[in-house]
Each structure stands twice: as C-alpha cells, then as structure tokens.
Amino acid sequence: MLNALENQLEKQGLQLRDFTELMIRLMDYGVICRDESQVEQVLYDRFVRLEGLVEDYLTVLSIRMQHDRKFQFVRLFPPGAEVPGMDAEEDTPFNGGFRVRLNQHEVALVLVLRSLYDKALREGQVDEHGNVLASLENINIAMKNLLKRTLPENVTERKALFRRTRQLRLISLNPEASFEDVELWLRIRPMIMSYVSGDVLASLVEGMDQDVTGGVEPIAEPDSGEEEEELIVNQHASVFDQDEAE
C-alpha cells in the first residue's frame, strides 16, 4: 500500500512527506481554507492535486470530506456527523467520535453568526469569496435579539471567544484586532453554513420556541457558583448535543 501511494505521489512530483504534512494539517485542524494564510494556500493547492488519494485515505477511516471548489476550502466530518447538504450515514458510531467541544458562549456566537450570514445572503450582501461583513456591534445586537444574552464584557474573554471561532475558520479576523472597539468588523466565512442547518436557524428565528440545539435547552446564563454546562458539536457539523450525565 505504501509503495502504491509513493508511486501515485511520484506522478504528481511529490513525496510521501508532502502527503504526510497535508494529512497531519487536515486531521489536526479539520479544515484548510486557501485564503486563510500562505501556508494554507500551499496546502490547499496540494490537496487539489491529491484529492483522490486524500479521499481514499479518509474513506478507510469513515471520515467524510466536504470540498467547496468555489470558495476553496476543504473540511472534514467525523463518522456520524449530521451535515447540512450531505446525505446522512446509515451506520453511526455510538459515541462522539472526534468532535469539537464548544461552551455555551461559543455555541451562541456560532448560532448568531449563522443568522447574520443568512440575512446577508438573502439581501445579496456576499462578496465574491462568499464572505459576509459583520460588525461587533451588529453581532451583539443580534445576540440580544435572538438569544437574550450578550457577548462577554471582559475583553480577554471576548478575544478568546472570537479567536476560537477564527480557529474553526468560521470567521476571518485580524489577530491584532481590538475588541474594545465597537466599530470592529470581521468577515463571516461560508463554512458557517455547514455548522448550523436551515431548520435549526428557522427555529431560532421563531424565538427559540422549540429545542433548536438538538437536545439542549435554550441557552441561558449559568447560575452563580455553578459550572457552565459544556456543549458538543460534531466537528464542523450542525447539531449541538449535550453531554450525557455521568
């Protein structure tokens, strides 16, 4: 198998270490976005050349892949992940697989970003890369209207929240951005569409009258002295689940 892989790579003028570097980055981050950085530009272009080999490798692990050629990104989904726009698997794992754990602040922000993206999409306010501009002020207003909560007041916590969202490639933001500036603008990436389904968004807009987070009660601030419950989201998928009580 290794010899066959090396032979295929040789046809592309690449070596095994090139394939290894690509797979490690993809498995580690779960997403490669060409316009994120020069490193990801190189890796994405390499992925395009090796897409068939990458897909064969991931199929063995039952990992699904989404490749958006228009907006030039590739994202991985763990076995059993429910992904908008992709057919559901017949056999799903009994446990969580490799999933990203998001706290309630992060889940709330993802939901709001999805709602703002959908609004801009309807109004045709999307750039050629599929990005949508949103200000910090607009995000905070939308969070109050939809979820009856606000962004963290503490600047350090707020910065960590948006840094986490940037790591998931859901937003594009200057790492040196000041979160004390209400005029701060960021770009919401089209990947947000694969995080929150249209049904979930519709339920949210209706006022959260029903369970819109796949088994999680409407988001609320934790009681004083109690730890905030941790939420789980399928890595780069749309369904938010609550950890089972131990």
Description:
The chain has helices at 2-11, 16-29, 38-60, 104-122, 136-147, 155-167, 198-205, and strands at 31-33, 64-68, 73-77, 100-102, 132-135, 171-172, 185-188, 231-233, 240-242. By secondary structure, the chain is an alpha+beta fold. The protein folds into 2 domains: 2-77, no CATH class; 101-242. It has 7 helices and 9 strands. Strands 1-3-2 form a 3-stranded antiparallel beta sheet. It has a 3-stranded antiparallel beta sheet with strand order 4-8-9. Strands 5-7-6 form a 3-stranded antiparallel beta sheet. β8 and β9 form a beta hairpin. It is 40% helix and 13% strand.
Task: Report Rg.
Answer: 19 Å
Give a count of the beta strands, DSSP E runs of length 2 or more.
9
Query: What is the domain tally?
Result: 2
Mean pLDDT: 76
Helix content: 40-55%
Task: Give the ordered list of helices and strands.
Answer: HHEHEEEHEHHEEHEE
Q: Largest beta sheet, briefly? A: 3 strands, antiparallel
Q: What is the percentage of strand-forming residues?
A: 5-15%
Structural class estimated from helices and strands? alpha+beta
Give the low-pLDDT segments: 88-98, 207-246
Oligomer: single chain
Strand order, sheet with most strands: 1-3-2
Q: What coarse outline follows from CA principal-axis ratios?
A: elongated
How many H/I helical runs?
7
What distance lies between the first and last C-alpha atoms, to the nearest angstrom? 42 Å
